[in-house]
Every structure is written in C-alpha cells, then in structure tokens.
Amino acid sequence: MASTAAGKQRIPKVAKVKNKAPAEVQITAEQLLREAKERELELLPPPPKQKITDEEELNDYKLRKRKGFEDNIRKNRTVISNWIKYAQWEESLKEVQRARSIYERALDVDHRNITLWLKYAEMEMKSRQVNHARNIWDRAITILPRVNQFWYKYTYMEEMLGNVAGCRQAFERWMEWEPDEQAWHSYINFELRYKEVDKARSIYERFVLVHPEVKNWIKYARFEEKHGYIAHSRKVYERAVDFFGEDYVNEHLFVAFAKFEETQKEFERVRVIYKYALDRIPKQQAQELFKFYTMFEKKFGDRRGIEDVIVSKRRFQYEEEVKANPHNYDAWFDYLRLVENDADPDTVREVYERAIANIPPIQEKRHWKRYIYLWINYALYEELEVKDPERTRQVYQASLDLIPHKKFTFAKIWLLYAQFEIRQKNLQGARKVMGTAIGKCPKNKLLKGYIELELQLREFDRCRKLYEKYLEFTPENCTTWIKFSELETILGDVERARAIFELAIGQPRLDMPEVLWKSYIDFEIEQEEFGNTRNLYKRLLQRTQHVKVWISFAKFELSIDGPERLQKCRQIFEEANKGMRSCEEKEERLMLLESWMDFEKEFGSDSSMERVGKLLPEKVKKRRKLMAEDGSDAGWEEYYDYIFPEDAANQPNLKLLAMAKMWKRQQVEVEEEEEENEDENGEESPEKSTEEIEDKSPERSPEKMEDKSPERSPKGADSSSSSSSDEDAGPPEKQPDNDRKTETKQEKKRDDRDDDDESSSSSSSESNSSSEEEEDGKKKKKKKEESKSGDEDQE
C-alpha cells in the first residue's frame, strides 16, 4: 500500500491553463523548424569509424553487409537500385564474380532496365573483361535494339579497342534498324575518320532513301562538294530535284543548288535554276527564293535581269490572286498589263484566253461591266500591238456572240467594232455592224454613235433617216429633236427645222420640254423672226406661268430695237404681275417684282420706280406648328412669309395690326415728351401739369383709328395708310403714375400677344420705311400742334 501511495505521489499533476486567450506573439511550425535547423538540434553525430584488423572481423563485416543487402532485396526485389548498390559493393571488394552473379540475378528480375545493362557493361569494361563486355553489349542490343545508347557505347568500345571491322559490323547491324539521322551521321563520320570516302558515299545513298528530306540531300551534295567531287555533287542536286518532283518542291533545295552553281561560276545555270523554281513554287513559299535571286542578279546580272526578277515576283502574286478568285477582273487587268510589257504575244494571248474564260455566272449587266473590258483590251492589243486585223475581228465577233443582247448589251463594244472596220477601210462592214446593233438592241448611245459616224462621213441623207429612226424609238427625247433641227439648220433648210420643232413641241410627253422651247425660241431669234418668237412666248405662257418665262419674254422685248420696246416690256411685267397674283409661290412673284424694279432703275423714271416699289412685299417672320410622322406634336418652326400690299388691302386684320403698332409708338413718344416738359417746368405744380396734359392729350384707341383710316387713305395707296394714321392719331389721356404704368404694361402684353399670334417680327417694305422716316422728321416739329389739336380730333 505504501508503494502504491508513493507511486501515486510521483505522478505529476496536469497543469491547468486558466488564460485560454491567444498569445500576443504567435509562433508557427515553420518558425520552430527553422530554429531547430539553425541550432542543429536534430543532427546526429557520425558513427565512429571502425577499423578492421584481422580476417575474421572482415568476414564478419562482409556477412553483415551481404545479409543487409539480401534482406533489402527480399523485401522489394523490383527496386533495381538495391541490386545496383549490392553489385557495386561487391565490385568495390574486387568480388567481380559475385557482382556478375548479382547483375545476372537482377536481369532476371527486369531485363529491360537500361541502367542495369549500362552498369553491368561498365563493370566488365573496368575489370578489362573485354569479351564479357562485348557479350553483354551484344545481348543488350539484341534485346533492346531501339536504345541508341547501347549502340553508341558498343561502337565506341570497339573503336577504342582498335577493332574497326567489329565497329563497322556493329554499325551495319545498327543501320538495319533504320535509326535516326544522328546515328547515320555517326557511321559516316566513323568511315571518314578512316578515309573511307566510298563507303561514306554508299552510306549517304542509303541515308537519303531512309530519311528522304531536303536537308539530307543537301548534306549529301555538300559532302561530295567538300571532297572535290563536283560532278557527283551536281548529280546529287539533280537527283534530289527529280526525286521530289513538282508536288514536294522546296525552295531551300533550289537555293542550295543555285549557290553551288554560283560557286562554280555557272551563272546561266543559276538563272535557269531560279526561274525553274519560281515557275513551280507558290509565291507565299518562295520568299527566300526571291530574296536570293534578287541578290544574285544584283551581283552578277544586268538591269534587265533585275527587272525580270521583279516581274517574276509580281507575276506569282497575280497568279495566286486569280487562282483564289477567278472572277476578280481587277487582278486580271493588272496581270495582263504586266505581261503585255514583258512577255511575247503567245504568252499574252494565253493569259487573255484564261481571263475571258471566266464568264460572270449571273446574266446581270452590273456583273458584266468589268468583264467586257477584258474583251475590249484583248481586241485593242491584237490590233495595236500585234497588228493582226483578222484576229481582232474574231475577238470582236466572239465577244458580241457571247453577250446576251436580249437582256442587255454594251454599246461601247459595237461602236469600237464599227470604228475598227472603218480604220480597216471597210465602210460597208462598219455599217453592217451598226445596223445589226440597232436591229438587235436599239439604244440611245448606239443611235448617237451611228449618227456621229455618218456625220463624219458627210452622209446627211443617212443622218436624216437615222434621226427619224431615233425619234420613232424615243419620241420623248428632246435632245434628239434639237440635234435634228440643228442639222437641218446647218444644211440651210429652215422650214424643215421649224417643222421639226413644231412636231417636237406637239409631243404629248417630253423629258425636258423647257430645253426644247428655249431651243425653238433661240432658233427663231437667230432667224430674226420676232413675230414668231412673240407667238412662241404666248403659246408657252398658255401652258405654264413660270416666272422665268415672263422674265425671258420681257428681256426679249427689251432686246428688240424699236421705239415701243420699253412700253412693251413694262406691259409684259404688268401682265405677269396680274397673272401671278394667284400664284402660291411668293418667291417667284418676288423675283418678278425685283426683275421689274431692276428694269425700272435702268430705263424707268422715279414715278415708275415708286409705283413698282409700292408693289414690293413685306418680309415677315412667322411660326407654324410641326407634326411628327406619328401625329404627335414636334414643336414650332419659324419661316419667312411675304405680304404683298395688293393682298394686304384685302386683309383688314393686318391693317389693324399695323395701325395698332403705330399708335403704340406714338404713345411712347408722347410719354417721353411729357417727362422732358416736367423736367423743364419743375416749378409748376404737378396737379396743373396733369390737368394740362389731360386736356391736351385725349386717349385714342386703335378702334377709332381703324374707323378713320378708310376715310383718310386714298384708294390704291394702302402703303401710305400707316403714315396718315400716324398724323391723325393723338397721344392718350394722361393717367396717374401707377395707373399709367399698369395700363402701359397691359397694353405691351396685349401687343406682344398679338405679335406672337400673327408674326414674331416684321420688316417693312421700302415704301413703308420711307414714310416712317418722314414721320419721324415731322414729329418733333409738330409736337405742340398735335397736343393742341388732340381735343379737336376727339370731338
């Protein structure tokens, strides 16, 4: 019991942690490990060295070590490192037989382990057991023939031993497995070390067949060149070109071949090689080829050769473009322009034939517009460059047979064909071509071209017939009528020309009737038939009341020398003004009046100018409401409108508005005058001055002015109504200051509202502005008279 109690007392008590909060300084496991490493707390001291003094201790040591190695192998016999360590330990003890036994046992476990074979063979070679080593390498390359390291070690061992035949035999066995390129190069270098060039050549022959790559053929050729066999080297390059053919051509082969020939001073052969390669290699794969070819021409060629290089490069570029898209006619044009400058006619024809063979797939004119120029350029090339008229005629005929004339045609090619026949002095053929064109597909351009052709030949009867056909085809074409009439005028047949014009203006439908009428009128003026011209103007005004026709008519009357020309011109302007009162286009009416005013300024008197000036309108800015497409409100728009005095007389609201503005202006002026009088007569009492002003300035309203204005303004002089009302109107009766200011503000608001309803701002015409200036001059002189006569006017 006592011992139990003593034992219980020895057990330490578990410390209780009262404060379980984290410490201020936290220590991580990484810090603990780092600190232990720094202090080297876990480093164990090395075991003491054991010295073996007798054979018994050595045997005991060997036994312990072998037992340990065997135990490790038993535990995991697949770990080859244990076998290797065991064998190396036995080897260190010079126990080669035991080490060989261990390696053999290991090979039974894993005979495909490369390291194991290498260590085994190295052990035999270190022990100078050559036959054993040769046996091991032979077994290794037999079991694992694809491991190049075995072959390299084997051949190296044989060569170091001086066994050249054995080394060559090993290489031959290796080459039967067709290894990679480096193995072949090792074999070739081995033969070259012993000056066996023929054997090296035979190895190269086998090598380029096993690894048929361009670089290997180049290496073979350079090998021959290096050893002085120039003919053999050239033959190798030629065999390489034949071997790869046109399907697998490579620019590096041709560059190397060309450089070889360049070193042999065979410049013509170099040029032929480059051209041959450029003809067969696509452009995107021949960048280096072009580069070296250009460098070669710069070094050894002339200017022509350099240009050929550039042309060849561009030709390849165009070939790629047309191959990618045969219907890219712009690329064909560029290509043809290139070959026309440098190539022979047969090559150019071949390219033209290839180009025109790409017919547009859709029979729509927009797709044929570029294509047809290929035929035109082809024909022009044959005619101008090759000078072969018969072939040119065949090209034109083939192009015309190809075009679907029932759907569309090209007048240009018909005209070019006819002009070509004329250049060949085949007039009958040219007329036949144009007749066929008009019969198959009549067009304006064809008919015009045929007529110009006959005009150049001075065949006027044929021109008349063609114009008749032309007008039957398009009777609404005013230009044709005019040209026909001009032809008859040139030929001196005036009556026939006039009859043509009469027929033309009698057509129910014309594309440009104003041009036709103008030409007819100019024709009559040239013939000095002023009566006919006047009748033409009257007939034209029956059809249209356009302002330019009236102005032209007036200028025509003015241009005729005669005593009554001014009166006739003025009469035309008056008739035009009356006729255009109902015209909705006020700008045209204003244009007429301005032209009339210019006429009066140059040829009229002051009274006539004043009369026309009274007819000029007033320019007014107005607002109108805009509506969107969906019917919603789109805001307001400002625009200018013209108010003519003749129209204003029929609109009393406008007259009333003008008189109200005049009354307002007079009211402001009277107030200013009263303020000046108050300043001058400051000694007088305000009551007296107020009474005097009330007596002298009775209040007048726009309604009274409107009642009196018709009586005082004469008929036909509406523009002077504002001035007469200004003279008759008197200042309003003076109010007390507060009442007067209130009324003034209300009147201003009312006037502003009226202005917004009718117009935002107005600028008076020349007659109104002149009358207002005269009023302003008279106002200061008549201030006292107006104040005195105010009471009389009110009564």
What is the alpha-carbon Rg in Å? Answer: 60 Å
The poorly predicted ranges are 1-8, 683-774, 777-795
- Beta strand count: 3
Percent helix, as a range, is over 70%
Strand content: under 5%
Strand order of the largest sheet: 2-1-3
Mean pLDDT: 75
Distance between the termini: 155 Å
How many helix segments?
Answer: 42
Structural category:
mainly alpha
Largest sheet: 3 strands, antiparallel
Gross morphology = elongated
Describe the overall structure:
The protein is mostly helical and 795 residues long. The protein has 42 helices and three strands. α14 runs antiparallel to α15, α31 runs antiparallel to α32 and α32 runs antiparallel to α33. The protein is elongated and about 165 Å long. 26% of the residues are buried. Keywords: mRNA processing, mRNA splicing, Nucleus, Phosphoprotein, Repeat, Spliceosome. Belongs to the crooked-neck family.
List keywords for this structure.
795 residues, mainly alpha, three-stranded antiparallel beta sheet, 42 helices, elongated, disordered N terminus, disordered C terminus, HAT_Syf1_CNRKL1_C, mRNA splicing, mRNA processing
Write the layout of secondary structure elements.
Blueprint: H1 2-10, H2 29-39, H3 55-75, H4 80-92, H5 96-109, H6 114-126, H7 130-143, H8 148-160, H9 164-175, H10 181-193, H11 197-210, H12 214-226, H13 230-244, H14 251-263, H15 267-280, H16 287-300, H17 303-324, H18 329-342, H19 345-356, H20 365-368, H21 372-385, H22 389-402, H23 411-423, H24 427-440, H25 444-456, H26 460-473, H27 478-490, H28 494-505, H29 513-526, H30 530-543, H31 547-559, H32 565-579, H33 586-603, H34 606-615, E1 618-627, E2 633-643, H35 645-648, H36 652-680, H37 686-696, H38 702-712, H39 721-728, H40 737-758, E3 761-763, H41 766-779, H42 783-794
Antiparallel strand pairs: 1-2, 1-3
Helix pairs in contact: 3-4, 4-5, 5-6, 6-7, 7-8, 8-9, 9-10, 10-11, 11-12, 12-13, 12-14, 13-14, 14-15, 14-16, 15-16, 16-17, 17-18, 18-19, 21-22, 22-23, 23-24, 23-25, 25-26, 27-28, 27-29, 28-29, 29-30, 30-31, 31-32, 31-33, 32-33, 33-34, 36-38, 36-39, 38-39, 39-41
